[in-house]
Amino acid sequence: MADEWGRGTARHAVVVGGSLSGLLTARVLADHAERVTVVERDRLPEEPDTRPGVPQGRHLHVLVEGGQRALDELLPGFMDELRKLGAPKIAMPTDMVQWQNGRWLRRTAASAHFYSGPRAQLEWLVRRRVLADPRIELVEGTETVGLTGTAARVTGVRLRGRGAGRESRVLAADLVVDASGRSTKAAEWLAGIGAEAPHEETLDTGLAYGSRIYRATDAVPDTDGLGYYVVPGPDQPYGAVVVPLGYDGHHMVTLSGLRGQEPPTDPEAFEEYAKLLPHPVVSRWLAAAEPVSGVHTFRNTANIRRRYDRPGRRPAGFLATGDALCAFNPIYGQGMSVAAIGAVALREALADPRRTPTTRRVQRALLAAARQAWDISAGADKKMPGATGDAARPKPLDGAVGWYLARVQERSMGDPLVGDAFREALILTAPLSRLFAPAVARAVLFSPAGRAPLEPQMYREG
Asked: Is the pLDDT at 7 greater than 70, yes or no?
């Protein structure tokens, strides 16, 4: 990057955080720096196991098509490797028995798919591929406690080994990228060198969810679907997802509710909570399945966007990416895919021959890469009762856009044309403008709503 990698510098990049976003960022930077150091608080497991630094590691994760394409761009052949590890491929809407907006989705021919294997499996595969590059070094069990430099330019990071009494040390760098997640301390780091933290946009519904692993038995409801999905909304705040994990009949079951209606951690109460859903199909599945884990809950689900693109006294040589830049309500399953899409955006910004890759320009490209996922997540959460935060405030066009998108959702339940366009936007393979294409708009505005079943389709159409 021109404003911090001038001629004669060491071209050393430091990435704070060894999760998915940090690893993919390191992979991109390795093509532009002489060496890249990834600094990670945890000791990373050698096998695909969960770790403390990923608080959602015991919960449901999905990889939608936008993320799949991005991972294959960054790490050629990655999706083939993931499939060989047994990650389940779920076709939409064919493989899911899905309830939304008071109706069940027609299980028509598939137009999209996602993978639902454990996050630890996917992250382990990325880690193995990225750290095989000799230009990338991993520093484990080490915290980043500050930046060095001035408000004009970052020159490195202050590190400290985890544990009492450890002294800090300085690691010089020409570029520092914050990929430390939604709990980033970047505001403190920037203040420590006289710079300004970015404004944070927030939107919080208070949603919480609980997850538990079950093994399907011969007694579970007879269906050719691979999973179940009950989508919450303003009039019905409870949600549920049941998807396979890809081994020994194990499934991840996640139940969710809003502030004051959170799922319990007690196993028996967890299954009672499922009876609050608008249809008993998930509760019946749980009653017939065998639980194989405890219940794990997660409550930190606010949407947070840090506006590094806005004017402020911030240094060259410092970028934010991943959840440290834009964190979404995890219930929408966008985080891993946006991490990969953001890394592709970083690669394109650094390689663009038409523009000098200054810190501000690259940071804007990273924020733009997350915008569609933000619009989807924050746009849906804005409608939920009790939503708080400055991003929850209504905007002038919210009424008209909300009316149109409500019709899109309604017609997507039974009209394959609208449903395909809606899913393409949700899986991040087409822009939201796809929903306003002439043929889609005609169907949304003038066609009668397609048939949506009142009872769940236990078998696909055709």
From this structure: no
How many angstroms separate the CA atoms of 357 and 336, rounded? Answer: 25
State the Cα–Cα distance between residues 80 and 250, nearest whole angstrom: 22
- CA end-to-end span of the chain: 54
The CA distance from 221 to 458, in Å, is 9
DSSP-derived 3-state class of residue 75:
coil
Confidence (pLDDT) at 1? 64
Residue 449 Cα to chain centre, angstroms: 31
Task: Tell me the longest C-alpha to C-alpha distance in the chain.
Answer: 69
3-state SS class at 409: helix
The backbone torsions φ and ψ at residue 345, rounded to the nearest 5 degrees and listed phi first, read -60, -40
E strands of 283-370, at which residues? 290-291, 296-298, 303-306, 318-320, 326-327
Phi-psi region of 131 (alpha: psi -120 to 50; beta: other; left: phi over 0): alpha
For residue 16, how many other CB atoms are within 10 A of its CB? 29
Model confidence pLDDT, tens digit, residues 162-195: 876 678 899 999 999 999 999 999 999 999 999 9
In the three-class reduction of DSSP (H, G, I as helix; E, B as strand; rest coil), residue 366 is classed as helix
Q: List Cβ<8 Å contacts ≥24 apart for 217-220.
A: 217/249, 217/288, 217/289, 217/290, 219/288, 220/285, 220/288, 220/289
119 vs 183: CA distance, rounded Å:
19
Buried/exposed 357-370: b ≥16 CB within 10 Å, e otherwise: bebebbbebbbebb
Phi, psi of 170 (to 5 degrees): -105, 135
Strand ranges, E, within 307-410: 318-320, 326-327
Rounded CA separation 338/340 (Å): 5
Measured in degrees and rounded to the nearest 5, phi and psi for residue 457 equal: -80, 105
Chain centroid to Cα 212, Å, comes to 20
346-353: long-range pairs with CB below 8 Å, 24+: 346/25, 346/28, 346/29, 346/321, 347/28, 347/31, 347/74, 350/1, 350/28, 350/31, 350/32
Q: Is the dihedral of CA 319, 320, 322, 325 positive or negative?
A: negative
